[in-house]
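Why DCMC protein? Reviewers of the renewal asked for a concrete example.
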Amino acid sequence: LRLCAWYLYGEKHRGYALNPVANFHLQNGSVLWRINWMGDTSPRGLGASCGMMVNYRYFLEETASNSALYLGSKQVRASEQVLALVSQFQQNSKL
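Here is what the prediction returned.
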């Protein structure tokens, strides 16, 4: 979960999210909301993402500002759950 959170939140290509699905949702003003362990146990889900599923949440009153923040300064809005996982990854990572 920590590595997945880092991949979605911290791994970048030219400053934007490396994952194309994350990049799509963040450009449209979503918040990286939750990472679900074994959220997709289909053969495709297990092969593509080790069964993990990600929820992006759209707060309609914040989508324009979130999108502008991401596109302008490349900052990702994320929930406390995701930020806690990112922090744990950074503390324990040797990357």
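The longest helix spans residues 80-92. This is the kind of structural detail the renewal will allow us to pursue systematically.
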